[in-house]
């Protein structure tokens, strides 16, 4: 079963994504900040990471950098309320950049796309 | 004949009788008779003698009488000459006795003082309108005391001519044969003219002082012409002012003051003749809106003469830098027929406005209603005045140029502030937007999750759908705002503006159909390609066309015109919809200003920002009931 690491500090949003992605048939592991995310990657070695940017303790971009530094092959999708990080070259390392909306279909599509690409590459 | 002889020679007749008597002495008939005849003869003789002496006396008397008659006539004649001189001398004369009673007065004085009966015998205070009579200040009293006597000035109004006169009294001592001071001759002199001159000079000085502080050009022009036309200063009936426009090289009518018709002139004169205001009073009361709509002023404002056209008297005056007095416009080759007809006066004067040796304009003044002649003297004073006026105008114009520059600077500053404001609003709005976006994602997301379930009550499903819809709408608004705050970098490429417009219109084709909008495109051929960011320009076109369509909820016509206008491309988007009210019009480019129920108020500010980033501009014209015209200009570089 595909495991998704969902990094999200907003409690309710985390619940929403967890529900929705489980409904899609994924195993979902969650983390509330960048630091926790690093630990969870070590513990679970997820197939894909969905990363918020604005978070306490360690933000998404820093966490992404650290994850990719250890496991280059784990795909990361940035899922943020801010569109302006798109221009930041740090975010270019991500496999996809999604601006949060209440319509989750774009996120679901992107997850499928990225996973398909990953399996094709490997 | 015999009768005549008897009359002229009675002595001979008597001698003959005597001879006859002597001859008849020898043959005396009657001695008594002879004696009687002798007596008669003697009586006649003595009578004759008496008569003779009487005649010679009479003759002497006759000669005397002739002489005295001549003398009388001479006296009469001289008296008449004297009388005439007294009347035409133009000075009021009055002889006063020691008790200040009038012994004699001439007609001039009677006329001036408006006396209906002879003043002789009256006390002087009864006839002179003065308040010093009998006091030590009275010139007559002073002369009787052996001092110099003259009373400087006072005003009288003669009802006959309804003119105010300025008069001065001078007292002259009159002594009799014995050298005793008996009477005083009081001379009353009309000093109105010299007083007017003094007043004019005073006015000049006042004008100088005031204009130094008057930098408002319109106010100044008004002031100058008011001075020229004011009754108590220059007193011209009308005055027009022309200024040189350097850019267009023309002499342009700016302002005219004066009545447009004779009736108006009479009315104004009646009003003015009783007033004697100082310049300061006039300025305080000056109403700029008044007098502006007169046909005379309107006509003047339409007068434009190229500076090359020296046939025009105003132009030649400006070029010659010297006043021109036209005495008879109908027969003066210096006046064109057109100018004569517009002015309608046969006598007028043109005075150049010269500042720092340069002509800046011309003033034309006339007396078309009172037909008073324009004297050389008056033109001289006018020239002095106009020179000062020219300097003041020059000052005001310089000030105006400065003011324009300041306005420009202010505008630039405002634009800076606006973009600064935009930036501030951008960062703030982006913060707020993101803060709101997160809970919205949760609300909408869960609502969507719920919608997957089946409910027995259909109301739940409907309500969930409403939540989803509303969240979607809020998210769209947030998208607009965050785009607004996003710093933009232009990606300019050479682009055909018409092509962008075509694309935009195509994109909206269905929308036009739905809203029953008829689109009319008119693109000029050969519009050059310009360097723009196509995506951004497209965004602008979309915003503006969208606004236009929204202003026509019941359908209408949409005109889209692209043409090249002097180094720039102009894009006009014209609708036939609801116009923009004036109070709204000045705010439409302010961020977050909106009149639409679901608008965000960023469409137009973003559009303006994009166009300004491209070095262009947006101009809006909206007329009630005629729709709105948005004109975009983009520079061709």
Automatic annotation (TrEMBL), chain A:
SMART domains: REC. SUPFAM superfamilies: CheY-like. Keywords: Phosphoprotein. The keyword Glycosyltransferase does not apply. Residues 3-115 form the Response regulatory domain. PANTHER family: REGULATORY PROTEIN, STRESS RESPONSE REGULATOR PROTEIN 1. It holds the Pfam family Response_reg. GO terms for biological process: phosphorelay signal transduction system. It comes from the Bacteria. This is Response regulator ArlR. The modification 4-aspartylphosphate is found at residue 52.
Automatic annotation (TrEMBL), chain B:
It catalyses: ATP + protein L-histidine = ADP + protein N-phospho-L-histidine. The keyword ATP-binding applies. It is an enzyme of class 2 (transferase). Residues 431-637 form the Histidine kinase domain. Residues 395-422 form a coiled coil. The keyword Nucleus does not apply. Its EC number is 2.7.13.3. GO terms for molecular function: ATP binding; phosphorelay sensor kinase activity. It comes from the Bacteria. Keywords: ATP-binding, Coiled coil, Kinase, Nucleotide-binding, Phosphoprotein, Transferase, Two-component regulatory system. InterPro entries: GAF, GAF-like_dom_sf, HATPase_C_sf, HATPase_dom, His_kinase_dom, HisK_dim/P_dom, HisK_dim/P_sf, PAS. Pfam families: GAF, HATPase_c, HisKA, PAS_9. SUPFAM superfamilies: ATPase domain of HSP90 chaperone/DNA topoisomerase II/histidine kinase, GAF domain-like, Homodimeric domain of signal transducing histidine kinase, PYP-like sensor domain (PAS domain). PANTHER family: PEROXIDE STRESS-ACTIVATED HISTIDINE KINASE MAK3, SENSOR HISTIDINE KINASE. This is histidine kinase. It comes from Candidatus Scalindua arabica.
């Amino acid at each position: 079963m595909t495991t998704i690491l969902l990094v999200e500090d907003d409690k309710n949003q985390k619940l929403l994504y967890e529900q929705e992605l489980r409904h899609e048939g994924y195993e979902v592991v969650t983390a509330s900040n960048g630091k926790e995310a690093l630990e969870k990657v070590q513990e679970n070695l997820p197939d894909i990471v969905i990363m918020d940017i604005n978070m306490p303790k360690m933000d998404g971009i820093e966490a992404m950098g650290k994850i990719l530094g250890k496991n280059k092959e784990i795909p990361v999708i940035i899922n943020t309320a801010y569109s302006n990080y798109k221009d930041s070259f740090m975010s270019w390392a991500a496999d996809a950049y999604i601006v949060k909306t209440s319509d989750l279909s774009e996120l679901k599509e992107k997850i499928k796309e990225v996973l398909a690409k990953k399996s094709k590459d490997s | 004949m015999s009768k005549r002889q008897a009359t002229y020679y009675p002595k001979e007749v008597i001698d003959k009788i005597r001879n006859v008597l002597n001859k008849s002495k020898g043959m005396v008939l009657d001695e008594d008779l002879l004696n009687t005849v002798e007596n008669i003869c003697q009586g006649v003789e003595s009578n004759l003698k008496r008569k003779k002496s009487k005649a010679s006396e009479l003759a002497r008397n006759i000669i005397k009488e002739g002489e005295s008659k001549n003398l009388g006539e001479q006296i009469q004649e001289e008296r008449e000459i004297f009388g005439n001189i007294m009347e035409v001398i133009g000075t009021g004369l009055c002889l006063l006795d020691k008790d200040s009673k009038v012994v004699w007065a001439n007609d001039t004085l009677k006329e001036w003082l408006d006396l209906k009966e002879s003043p002789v015998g009256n006390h002087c205070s009864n006839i002179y309108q003065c308040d010093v009579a009998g006091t030590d200040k009275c010139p007559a009293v002073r002369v009787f005391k052996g001092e110099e006597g003259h009373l400087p000035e006072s005003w009288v109004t003669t009802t006959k001519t309804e003119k105010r006169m300025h008069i001065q009294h001078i007292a002259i001592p009159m002594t009799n044969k014995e050298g005793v001071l008996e009477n005083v001759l009081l001379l009353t002199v009309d000093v109105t003219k010299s007083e007017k001159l003094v007043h004019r000079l005073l006015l000049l000085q006042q004008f100088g002082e005031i204009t130094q502080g008057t930098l408002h050009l319109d106010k100044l022009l008004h002031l100058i012409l008011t001075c020229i036309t004011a009754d108590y200063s220059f007193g011209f009936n009308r005055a027009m002012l022309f200024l040189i426009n350097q850019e267009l090289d023309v002499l342009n009518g700016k302002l005219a003051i004066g009545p447009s018709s004779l009736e108006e002139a009479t009315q104004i004169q009646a009003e003015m003749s009783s007033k004697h205001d100082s310049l300061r009073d006039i300025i305080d009361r000056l109403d700029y809106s008044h007098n502006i709509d007169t046909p005379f002023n309107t006509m003047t404002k339409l007068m434009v003469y190229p500076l090359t056209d020296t046939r025009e008297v105003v132009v030649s005056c400006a070029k010659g830098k010297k006043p021109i007095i036209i005495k008879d416009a109908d027969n003066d080759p210096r006046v064109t027929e057109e100018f004569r007809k517009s002015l309608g006066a046969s006598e007028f004067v043109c005075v150049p406005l010269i500042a720092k040796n340069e002509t800046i304009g011309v003033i034309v003044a006339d007396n078309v209603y009172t037909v008073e002649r324009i004297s050389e003297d008056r033109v001289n004073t006018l020239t002095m005045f106009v020179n000062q006026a020219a300097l003041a105008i020059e000052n005001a114009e310089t000030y105006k140029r400065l003011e324009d520059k300041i306005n420009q600077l202010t505008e630039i500053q405002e634009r800076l502030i606006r973009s600064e404001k935009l930036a501030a609003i951008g960062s703030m709005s982006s913060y707020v937007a993101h803060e709101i976006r997160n809970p919205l994602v949760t609300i909408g997301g869960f609502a969507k999750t719920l919608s997957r379930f089946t409910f027995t009550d259909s109301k739940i499903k409907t309500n969930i759908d409403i939540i989803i819809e509303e969240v979607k709408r809020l998210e769209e608004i947030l998208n607009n705002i965050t785009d607004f705050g996003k710093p933009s970098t232009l990606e300019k490429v050479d682009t055909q503006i018409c092509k962008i417009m075509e694309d935009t219109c195509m994109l909206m084709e269905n929308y036009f159909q739905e809203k029953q909008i008829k689109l009319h495109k008119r693109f000029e051929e050969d519009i050059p390609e310009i360097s723009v960011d196509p995506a951004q320009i497209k965004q602008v076109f979309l915003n503006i066309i969208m606004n236009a369509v929204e202003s026509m909820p019941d359908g209408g016509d949409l005109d889209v015109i692209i043409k090249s206008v002097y180094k720039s491309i102009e894009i006009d988007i014209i609708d036939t919809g609801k116009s923009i009210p004036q109070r709204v019009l000045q705010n439409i480019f302010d961020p977050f200003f909106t009149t639409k129920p679901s608008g965000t108020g960023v469409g137009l500010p973003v559009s303006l920002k994009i166009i300004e980033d491209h070095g262009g501009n947006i101009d809006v014209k909206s007329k009630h009931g005629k729709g709105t015209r948005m004109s975009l200009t983009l520079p061709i570089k």
